Amino acid sequence: MFFNTYFYKPNYTPVQILTRSWLMLFSLCLLCAQLAQAQATTASINGTARSDKDEALSGATVAAIHLPTGLRRSTSSTSTGSFTMADLLVGGPYTLQVVQPGYRTLLVTNVFLAAGKEAQFSFSLNTEIVAVGTRRADRTALESAVPVDVIDMRTLAATAPQTDMTQLLNYVVPSFNSTRQTSAGGSDHVDPANLRGLGTDQMLVLVNGKRRHTTALINLLGNRGVGNVGTDLNTIAANSVDRVEILRDGAAAQYGSDAIAGVMNINLKSDNKGGNVLVGTGVTTQGDGLTTLASLNKGFKLGQKGFFNLTLDADHRGSTTRDYSRDVFSRPVFSSDQAQENAALAANGKAYKDFEQRNGDARIDNYRGIFNASVAATDKVKLYAFGGYNYRRGNSVAPWVLPATQSLDIIESIFPLGYQPNINTRIHDASGAVGTVISLGPWSLDVSHVLGHNRMRYNVDNTVNASIGVKSPTSFDAGGFRFTQNVTNATISRLFPKVLAGTNVAFGAEYRNDHYQIEEGEQNAWGEFDEGRIGAGAGSQGFLGFAPASAVIGSRSNVGGFFDLEADITKKWSVSTALRFENYSDFGSALIYKVTSRYQMLKPLAVRAAFNTGFRAPSLQQVLYRQLTLESSASGVRYSGIFNNQDEVTRAAGIPALGPEKSRSFSAGLVLTPLPSLSFTADAYRIDINDRIILSGLFGPGINANLDAALFRYSIDRAQFFTNSVDTRTTGLDLIANYQHELGRGSFTASAAANFNRTTIQALNVPANFQTLQSDDNPNTNYVDPRQLSLIETGSPKSKLLLSLGYELGKLNVLVRNTYFGQVSYFDTNTDAANDFGSYYLQFNPRTVTDLMVGYKPLKSLGLTAGVNNLFNVFPNTVSEAARNGRPPGGFASVEVFNAYYQARFGKPSNLPEGRDIFPYNPVQMGFNGTFVYLKAAYTLGL
């Protein structure tokens, strides 16, 4: 029938029939050729996946992504580590990805497959070695006896909305918290951060395993880290970092002072080729807070196996303002009488918008350079060096100086309608480390020296020194401070593979020297002159300069020795112990220890526990800091402010010299890996800290005879001191789960993490001279300020939960992450002289922030990410809302009852909480900028 249909028609001529016959034959031949070629248009891959110890990896996920089409094929390795993928498209390029929990993900790019041929691969995966919490060179995060988070900064820096290290980590580590401060002096320019709800100075920071210096700044304002000195993580470019390891356990016995809450180790990139160019920009949906980033990372080869890795970057962050308003009973412009206020505004042709208070993020510009290098001098000697420099310019503001409340401080010929002082900072931060690792047979000797320096100076403009009068300048060099640290360390270690199931021994010594200096500002920034109006304020308004009486120079040193032993009793059971002794030149010595154990009960289940004692030496800044404020009075110039441990006022008042904080902590947890694609850890902990250092209340005459005599002798009105006054207990629970699974033609990932913590005050250590103050009914004169106690107990979120869901399909990937910030509460400040009831207890209810990130790779070397931080524009409670959530001062039943009483007593409504109109939000939880949209592009060099 086919023949008749195709060839035979009554009207076909013989020529037509012959032609059609040849066409049919040619078609059949072509079809056969195509069928034959189809037999060879697919390709296959097979190979093995093994560890760097040459052990077969069972269940490893091997994926092949065909970049032109985005098609993804995957398989899992067998118990022998072998795998096979057939029927793959010919050509390429392909990217091969090998993933196994506990090992670093392996990527092989630019793979091409030939038709009918089988490509052979032998993959060797490096274990996800952690350098923190252990001195063994072969421990993975899941094998650790204490919990360690490992954060891949290569991916995070290139795709996440944030650019600063503190903000990047705030959204991926539940036990880590950092919130940008506002109208908090220097703290606006250096983001404080903490771990497990403890102090910013109770987390030790390492870079490449070496101690990082702290900032020169001591936080005195704001609501995070008050009285503490932390490490400025934002001096390190995120694009220079390979990964961040966060040890969530006390480790002072291993690393020395400060490691009470835990240790953060920042590992710099060590590539000897390639690199990337990273650019990004973003802005809030209200049009402010513009952020830009430009960063270059490049690796260079040194010798056969050495490297020199360099990162240069610059970023800008614009200032923000939210929901500004003015209330005549809080911060009026001309008068607290509404009619007079309206008349004065109209007469001057002004409205409240002309006196807008900047109340959000400070403006910041960063310029950074970071390097990391290593080279083999001989077969047994390796040299290494790393370091960097950060220059930062910051601009924040103080509250407006307005005629309504400070008319004596306004010079009509300069600022006839008031002024908003600008607080500008210049921060120089530099560090450098050099060292060598020498192989001494089976022993290894690591000798290093690290130098760190941080300097911060203030320049105040758009303001006056009213006591100078009409000749007052409007810009002032207000002085600043600097901190320098030198650390020399020597560590000897050896692994004895045949002692038990493997035993590592390490011991060594360390010498550290700290130097701190407060630099005085120019006289116009702090001086009191008689050229202005009577009673005019002295010094630059908005930020008083450091006077010669505040200037100080001091240093201290300490020497320590340590011994560290880690032993695998069996292949399933490991134990470790660490012992450390340190002696400080200014307060004495400390002897501390730590013990840990981990037992592999079943193949998918291990349990672990640790107990340690620890200490935190008072920072040199806390020991030496003083800032004296000049106050003019009828009897002449007098002082008030913070007095350090060396001042005669402090000794006369009976304030004990600062000593170390002492801690005891234990943790217990489990590690569960029921599937190669699923891991789960749970760790409970308790941390007891005695003699925590806080800033005392502000005391005037009438407290005790000794203090009265000292105040009178040195013409001082009020004094404040650093003191070891609080014992605390922190309990908590960390939960972390990670899951990855092939879904459809793509890969699905999910991670969930949570931290729950609670800190309670166990005891107050009040000197005998001040006992009556702590027990009286006046909260404004307590020896231990209730606000500081509340910041310690409830100033960090009670809980923090993270849930991230991601899907990758070829060139496209999508990530949604949710961050739940728990409740925060603390006492508000109280600067109203008429209010002797105390402060509002503010309660900020929990909030959840949702981020969306969409990535696309148009080229194998180019990745683009567009996304939104805080997709649903979530804000924390306003201060007024927090006051209603909490409780009013003085034990009143409600806000309404307190306000009615205040109105009856003073004839006006209460203007508490402090600054609720011009500062409607406090910097708690996730900040208050709202929705932020951004774009990032990362171009990989060398592909």
UniProtKB/TrEMBL annotation:
Q: What is its main location?
A: membrane
Q: Does the keyword Ribonucleoprotein apply?
A: no
Q: Does the record bear Nucleus in its keywords?
A: no
Residue stretches making up the TonB-dependent receptor plug domain: 142-263
**Topological category with respect to the lipid bilayer:** Multi-pass membrane protein
Query: What are the residue boundaries of the TonB-dependent receptor-like beta-barrel domain, all occurrences included?
Result: 389-871
Question: Which residues constitute the signal peptide according to the record?
Answer: 1-38
Task: Name the keywords, alphabetized.
Answer: Cell outer membrane, Membrane, Receptor, Signal, TonB box, Transmembrane, Transmembrane beta strand, Transport
Q: Which domain of life is it from?
A: Bacteria
Q: What Pfam families has UniProt attached to this entry?
A: CarboxypepD_reg, Plug, TonB_dep_Rec_b-barrel
- The UniProt transmembrane annotation reads none
Tell me the compartments it is located in.
Cell outer membrane
SUPFAM superfamilies attached to this UniProt entry = Porins, Starch-binding domain-like
Instruction: Name the family the entry cites.
Output: Belongs to the TonB-dependent receptor family.
**What is the protein's given name?**
TonB-dependent receptor
Q: Give the originating organism.
A: Hymenobacter algoricola
